[in-house]
Amino acid sequence: MTLWFVFALMTVAAIFAVLWPLSRNSSAQAGGSEAAVYKDQLAEIDRDVAAGLIGVSEAEAARVEISRRLLAAADSQHNLPARSSLGLRRASAIVALVGLPIAAVTFYLSLGSPQLGDFPLVSRTRTADANQPIDNMVAQVEAHLEKNPTDGRGWTVLAPVLARLGRYDDAVRAYRNAINYAGDSADHRSDLGEALAAAAGGVVTAEAKAEFERAVAQNADGPKANYFLGLAAEQDGRRADAAAIWRGLLAKAPADAPWRPLIEAALARVGDPAAPALSNDAMAAAKDMNEADRGAMIRGMVDRLATRLKQNGDDVEGWLRLMRAYMVMGERDKAASALTEARQAVANDTERLRQLNEGVKNLGLGG
Amino acid sequence: MIAEAGHYALVLALALALIQSTVPMLGARWGDQALMNVARSTALAQLLFAGASFTALTMLHVTSDFSVVNVFENSHSMKPLLYKITGVWGNHEGSMLLWVLILALFGGLVAAFGNNLPLSLRAHVLAVQGWIAAAFYLFILVTSNPFLRIASPPIEGRDLNPVLQDIGLAVHPPMLYLGYVGFSISFSFAVAALIEGRIDAAWARWVRPWTLVAWIFLTLGIAMGSYWAYYELGWGGWWFWDPVENASLMPWLAGTALLHSAVVMEKRNALKVWTILLSILTFSLSLLGTFLVRSGVLTSVHAFATDPARGVFILLILCLFIGGSLLLYAWRASTLKQGGLFAPISREGALVLNNLFLTTACATVFIGTLYPLALEVVTGDKISVGAPFFNLTFGPLFVPLLAAMPFGPMLAWKRGDLLGAAQRLTAAGIAALIVIAVLWAWTFGGATFAPLAIGLAVFVVAGAVSDLAERVGLFRIPLTIAVARARGLPRATWGTAFAHAGIGIALIGIVCETTWNTEYIGSMKPDHVAKVAGYQLKLDGVTQRQGPNFREMIAQFTVSRDGETLEVMTPSKRDFTTRGSSTTEAALLTRGASQLYVSLGETNAEGAIAVRIYHKPLVLLIWWGPVLMAFGGLLSLSDRRLRVGAPKPAKAARALQPAE
Amino acid sequence: MTRKQRRLTMIGGSLAVLAIAAALVLNAMRDSIVFFSTPTMAAEKQFPPGQRFRLGGLVQPGSLVRGDNLAVNFSVADGSATLPVTYKGILPDLFREGQGVVAEGALDASGVFKADTVLAKHDETYMPKDVADALKKQGHWKDDYGAKPGATAASAPVQGTSK
């Protein structure tokens, strides 16, 4: 409302600027004239002569010349009598009164956004936290941390959010900072490892594994660290090791741990003979959970890895990981075609080709 | 509310500009004074609204209102307040808004202080200003609107580029704009004269102060930009002949020519048609400077393709104003009456020579700047026309100009006495010859060209001094009378002398810097000593410091000469880790007009640091010269003869009374 | 002197100055213009050793080698070709692997580009927007190169005649 009031005031001011001179009867004084300039030039010559700057004869010549111009100017000045054309004035007044506001408002409405208020930063940071999109809050926290990089609690809060947003590389950095400034802990280490694995497309890299090992060193029973250590073993093809780790984890786990079904499903996947017999219900629940929670995520990670390798095929280790992942997911066909692609990619490099073939042997992928 | 009010103010300014560009023209056509007076009030109101709009944008930047696209893209909440404000014009949209604000300011000044102008001339001038303003408001609103909004505002802005956070960079664009836009007034006067079909000496007198104001700002703006490049870019160069600089140099050259030809017109009623043409050309070059640089067209034709709407609009504006005014000129120029006669050897003749050389020099810069662009459009070849081209063309054209410069003010109007002028310049000539001889002996076997150039510069400076000496009759009459006469000398004469001397002084700086510049480039470890031009610079050590958002590596040098320690210099290099960019902060040590310049490069694996050290003799003269020129301009501007025109109406009325 | 004679003097003088200027411009054009070339174009045009030109492109990531006494080697790439460059001196602040660069110099006998000036693509302009634009321009730069082979092929005959 205030906005429209301000607009109205401004419009009135603009209209007034046009109407005011129209309403005034023109005074006889019609601005300056050339004659004045020439008179001044004459005076200037007198001054110059008095100061001895120019000679008398030159001054006389100049005077004659300027006087001639002065006469001409004086002649032409009176041939333009002041007239007033009422019709034109009325037309201008109407344009100002009607045309100006209509044109201005129409033009403005096609461009402006009168419904939007101001959003100065100060008022926004104080109030609007709850209903802002998550990106904004993250940006806010990041800006804060850029100024105060040693705020460990800030990093601790930020890191999981980044991980959830899929910004794994940033999450890794944030977890590292959290460890630096908020103190080392098993949870932080295993979260960092998880972020590292996520950033590597779901593969537990050596770097990630090191973090999980550190976490286990601090807290031997940490379920996340142990789970991922098992996963690392599985990805390396050491199924028995993986099964052993997971069995140990299950043995110590409380009966109602929410992650139990996940581990049991994993155990079933590696074909552990000693896997506890699961009731059909539990199996189904675990399966549901797997589908819902992890299926999509893993699929995404594997796809990312595949794309990366398509762009840069030198990474033998990466190819092996990809094939392993396909095998784990039970997609033998894809694993086989990945192998073909991998062979093509490193065909020129005998050393790499040898590595690839070695690795494939352990995978149990024929051909 | 602030954003929308600013937006609406801009729309109103457009509406007023449209009225300002039509109603007064009709009034002048039908001789209606009230209609002509509309020009004045609308020009003032337009200034008010343009000012309100700019203030609104500034407030938005200061409060970091990221719901405005322009603020979001070009600001950041962590910028220091000063750079939030200067950031307003640090981007295309904001700079265009500043441009129209300055345009409105000049229009408002003409409206407010143009009492001495004939009514119809004022109406026409302001109407032409209205056309320009309307075109620009439309351009801003349609293609470069700074008030566009984002419905769900982001929390943080995008720009925190450290290179842009510099006070020199922040201040010099407005100075350049004051210059560019100031020439719009002489353009409007020229077009008004063509429309009226009438032009006379009085016109020149009215146009001169405005041209002078624009010229002063442009001179200072160019000098400031050059000094900024010198200390900030870290390699000690002060003029690169790059398109951006050329774009500001061209209007300056044309404007300088205009300033001189307007004198001829005022005093002798000659060169009318030429002066009109120059006014049009000067502003056209200013438009070109604003637009081509801003739109990036000069650096690459392809920049045009990125925003076709904007590019087409720019082309339209350029065609409309440059083409339109030149057409009007071709059509109407013949109706202007011929002016006074003069002999080739005369003050007029000298000023014609000045114009000839200045415009030709301007044309060569124009060719060098736009030829690559034309070639790229036609053949697709990318070439670069660098400093050698300009040195080879611009230099030879400026030499005769400078050599003739001291003669100009010595010659009389109408018919001059070259021999007499030469006699009066004997002292200056002898001074120049002595300087040449001394320099030659001193730098024997060195540069042959430099002493000659410095001799020329000394001739120019001494010429300016002897002009003053002649006028006050120094050494010929008793000193007290001479002083009195000096006081009585018109300030414009002093201004001329200062401006001419300024050129000479800048030339001395340029020649010394380019010829006797010594440099040391190498890697240094702590306690190493570099010797440059008799100075010893010992690297004491390198320290690291954490700034607000950067890490800074500071090297400390102890400078000594002949065993005597002079000062400590601390150049540094800042790394803005979050942005992945770094800046070099050069250290300067000023000794008289000479400077020692140290800037840092990278650190290598063994801990040695790359260093460049320059000794730049008399380098500061390069910028003192323009400052002196601008001061001369200011003196001329303060000359009461320029402010005249009509005596105050009230006074005139009183003066008439006794006669009745 | 009559009005006509005076006018002729002035016109004659102006023409003389213009002729001198034109001669200067043409002379300078012949000697001091350097072509801008990307590595691909340089390969096509076969610049003889010693002829100066400006080489533009992106600094090939991983190619930067720093030698003794501020000597630097790096490669300039444009997507389809690369050219090794040697330079001695301090690189500009904005020089970075993977970023745009313009080097001025000439090829030596072994086909290595010896640069005497290296400009990182955006420090030749100092207006705020232009620095920002230059950053954006690097995007277009790559585009240019995509379009370039066709453009150079079309312009090659013109080039030949103008030499």
Automatic annotation (TrEMBL), chain A:
Gene Ontology annotations for the cellular component aspect, listed alphabetically: cell envelope; plasma membrane
Transmembrane segments: 6-23, 91-111
UniProt keyword annotations, A-Z: Cytochrome c-type biogenesis, Membrane, Repeat, TPR repeat, Transmembrane, Transmembrane helix
Domain Cytochrome c-type biogenesis protein H TPR stretches: 143-258
Coiled coil region boundaries: none
Localization terms from the record: Cell envelope
Pfam families linked: TPR_CcmH_CycH (PF23914)
InterPro entries for this protein: C-type_cytochrome_biogenesis, Cyt_c_biogenesis_CcmI, TPR-like_helical_dom_sf, TPR_CcmH_CycH, TPR_rpt
Signal peptide range: none
GO biological process: cytochrome complex assembly
Main location: other
This protein's name: Cytochrome C biogenesis protein
Source organism of this protein record: Bradyrhizobium valentinum
Automatic annotation (TrEMBL), chain B:
GO cellular component: plasma membrane
Pfam families, per the entry: CcmF_C, Cytochrom_C_asm
Keywords: Cell inner membrane, Cell membrane, Cytochrome c-type biogenesis, Membrane, Transmembrane, Transmembrane helix
Record InterPro entries: CcmF_C, Cyt_c_assembly, Cyt_c_biogenesis, Cyt_c_biogenesis_CcmF
The Cytochrome c-type biogenesis protein CcmF C-terminal domain, residue ranges: 315-640
Gene Ontology biological process terms from the UniProt entry: cytochrome complex assembly
Subcellular localization: Cell inner membrane
Taxonomic superkingdom: Bacteria
Record keyword Transmembrane present: yes
Membrane topology field: Multi-pass membrane protein
GO molecular-function terms, A-Z: heme binding; heme transmembrane transporter activity
Membrane spanning stretches: 6-31, 43-62, 96-113, 125-144, 175-195, 207-229, 249-266, 273-292, 312-331, 352-374, 394-413, 425-443, 449-469, 618-637
Domain (Cytochrome c assembly protein): residue spans on this chain: 89-295
Record carries keyword Transmembrane: yes
PANTHER family for the chain: CYTOCHROME C ASSEMBLY PROTEIN-RELATED, CYTOCHROME C-TYPE BIOGENESIS PROTEIN CCMF
Its job: Required for the biogenesis of c-type cytochromes. Possible subunit of a heme lyase.
Assigned protein family: Belongs to the CcmF/CycK/Ccl1/NrfE/CcsA family.
Name of this chain's protein: Cytochrome C biogenesis protein CcmF
Species this protein is from: Bradyrhizobium valentinum
UniProt lineage: Bacteria, Pseudomonadati, Pseudomonadota, Alphaproteobacteria, Hyphomicrobiales
Automatic annotation (TrEMBL), chain C:
Region: Disordered, residue numbers: 142-163
Membrane-topology descriptor: Single-pass type II membrane protein
Binding site for heme: H122, Y126
SUPFAM superfamilies, per the entry: Heme chaperone CcmE
Sorted UniProt keywords: Cell membrane, Cytochrome c-type biogenesis, Heme, Iron, Membrane, Metal-binding, Signal-anchor, Transmembrane, Transmembrane helix
A Pfam family recorded for this sequence: CcmE
Signal peptide stretch: none
Family annotation (InterPro entries): CcmE, CcmE-like_sf, NA-bd_OB-fold
GO biological process: cytochrome complex assembly; protein-heme linkage
Chief localization: membrane
HAMAP family xref list: CcmE (MF_01959)
Function: Heme chaperone required for the biogenesis of c-type cytochromes. Transiently binds heme delivered by CcmC and transfers the heme to apo-cytochromes in a process facilitated by CcmF and CcmH.
Protein name: Cytochrome c-type biogenesis protein CcmE
Native species: Bradyrhizobium valentinum
Lineage: Bacteria, Pseudomonadati, Pseudomonadota, Alphaproteobacteria, Hyphomicrobiales
Gene behind the chain: ccmE
